[in-house]
Predict the structure.
Amino acid sequence: MLAATVPSGVPVLVDPLNVTGASTAFNYTYSTADIYTYNTTGFVATPSLGNGHPGTQLTWFSTINKTKDGSTIPGTAFNFTSTSPAFNVDHTLDRQEVNWTLTIPQSNCASCTLAVRFNLFGNLTKGTSENFTLTPSTNNTSVLPLGITGIFLGNQTTPVYVCGLTRSTLSACSQPEVTIPVSKWVGVSLRLSFRFGWNSTNEQMLGSVGEVVVASIDNTPKKSVSNFMTQGSDPTKVMHTARFSQISYNTTVPSHVWSNEVINFYYPSGYNLTQLALNATTNPIFPSGNRAFFEKTACTDQPLCTQSLIALNMSDIQPFFVRNSTSIFITAISQNSLVRLTPVASGVATTFFVPGDTLGVNVTNRPSVANAPTSLKTGQLNITFVDRQGPETPTGQAFSISTVIGGLFNFTLPSDCGTNNLRCGQWTITATFGGGLDLGAMSSSFSVDLIQMNSFNAGGGNNGVTVTGTLTNSSGSASTATNGVVFAIDSGTPVNNPVTNTTKNPSSIGLYISNVTLVNGAFSQGQQLIMTFTLVNPTGSAFNATVIIQHEWPGSLTHGVNATIHLGAGILGGLPFTSGPQAYQAGITLTPSGVHLVLTSLTTGNSEIVPVTLGADPVVSTRQHAGLFKITVVTLTGTSVISTNSLESPPYAYVFGLVSAANRYLAYSSPFSTLPDGKFSITLKSDSILAANKLVMFALARDSRGVVLTSSPQNTGLSDSTTLQSTMDSIGPVAESSSVTATLHLKSNSTKFTEIITVDLYVQGSGKLAEQTGISISPGTSQDVTLSFKAPSTPGQYALSISSPQYGGGPLAGQTLQVTILQSNLQILIPAAIGIVAAIIILGVYLVKRQPETMETQEKTKPAGSKSKTPGSGNSPSKSLT
């Protein structure tokens, strides 16, 4: 890709990586020059060459090579030295002069300036001098600009070093060049004179002059029109290809032809210039055979040293170049500015990821020119991805950022393997850096894989559930040597069921962990795992303590993820540890960047955020998994270790897609490892799987790469209900201490598991009165259970309940039992007897009342004249009414 529009007819190179650099990284200027030597017309030395004063020497040498063949141009510099110069009576003769008559032609470009340029150096002692003048050949009017003097005198005590226009007491000379503008002297002949003098004997001196030129100098750098990068077999190097176009100017000016046409190419320091060519197809013009550069400087901008120079005399290479317009291609090699491209997970380098992971890309860019302006060190960093189906954009858009040194950049991988699993497998990541002085390209690779449940089956009962399954990778191949755990939860009962491990090895001399409890052992994204543990001091001594909470993969596999707490330090308090227990709660949150832990003292209520190390294999929220924690307490007296005690927690299940925030944790298996064919088989024994409204049984697994089983338990696990429907026949009143029979009807709601239970009958105040063991209820079948017991010996009402210790301990059925005094058949006879007695009493009363009535009847039936022998005491019933 080119950084500018390409003129018609100009060869174009292909940019394979589409990485462009700053067009100002490569620049050029051009100049025309006439070089003056001792062979140039107008050269005069006084004394003449070979006739110097005794004790002095004028030595000529070459500092400029011909570009075309590398041969030297004779007489481009000289040294004048004096060791013990002769001292004349006429002191005006105690000197050496070197003169040139210079022609000042017209410049050949609008942005060029005319100048006389030469290098000047001197080492002057007492009584010596070094001078230069520039005057018109017709008079002695100085051409030197105001403020510039060409007179240098030796010191009385220490040497004076001349470097260009400066004087110094130091011998080092980095800028010996003298430039005198002469644009206003076009068409005039100027005389350049150098004079070396002395006014005493035995004083040494050195004067040096070189590379005297009259030049038309272009002071406006012209940037390249393109600058792009390619890469060879060495990944630590990159090749820059820059193109300059169009270069066109003429060495012929009115009344003069410039003898040398020089192009100055500027490029960043640290680059290794490898080739210059006139176009993309011709043989290089440099290097080529014995060709030599006109000038080469590693640092043209001391002391920063951000730019290097190479100059070629194009008049030596292609004489007719001055009349053509063409392109020049320059290539250079530099260090690849990208020195690191590492995929990371939670800051830890890895090459294995699972779908949905947060992929970190750690990029380091190292500028090659440290002192360059920030604007030129800043470039555009692009990161691209390619998976098996082609270019991929994990974040949904192309990534590009302006930077100098790079950084850590996070991406979210696709949540699945895509069509035909093309998003899983090998990925290539490429980073390119361009737009500034530096260019860089680097590629790396990583793999995206997952473990999936190919089959999952379970059968048996609570006395032993056999779970079998087959695990495969995204490619369908067997997932071998993969470790996992089978869990059982009740997702239909949104109540947490804490699970606890209790120590079997308490310490007698120091602190020990008595128990570790997972309050909610099954949790999901956005939820917190709550773990509690208790420290016990069995002695009467006071101790200091350090607690280490270490994460493990199932099978007690440590991986460097841990937190260390010095109890008593910070805000937790709790030290020194005296006798008795202290309980703590750890709130554990999984994030994409690792574990976040908050430890709370349940004694004081104080909390503290505890840093957790990333380890070699971070625990992250983007991967469902099984894990556990090992808690270790180190008992100390001062700095002396008294004892160390550890206890592991039950395994937890971090699983995606749980319907409820709270799920009743039921059971877990021992760790399993898959066989070479990816199969596993494990037996889980637990009565806890009974009485589950919605039993979900599933596996969580991971391999040595950290790739995890991503299958959702709702999709690949096993779901069932292990509740029982129960009813009980009604029991009527029973006599005290009598034998009673209770009948319980049970029906299983399970479709997969046999439920083997013991049934116990309890009567209020009497405890357990009956038990039946080994009751086996097959899936979906009914079972009647008969329990015989003896009624309480005291009449009254009693609560009767039937329960099973395997079935959560809750009642299966219950009713009120009525206990009476007599047998039930007597209860029928007593009312009958009472009825007979009542009938007799009624009959007796009837007979007593009937006797007076009989007597009265008899009296009424006597004759009319008769009288009663015994008169009544009352009125006569026949009393007259007259």
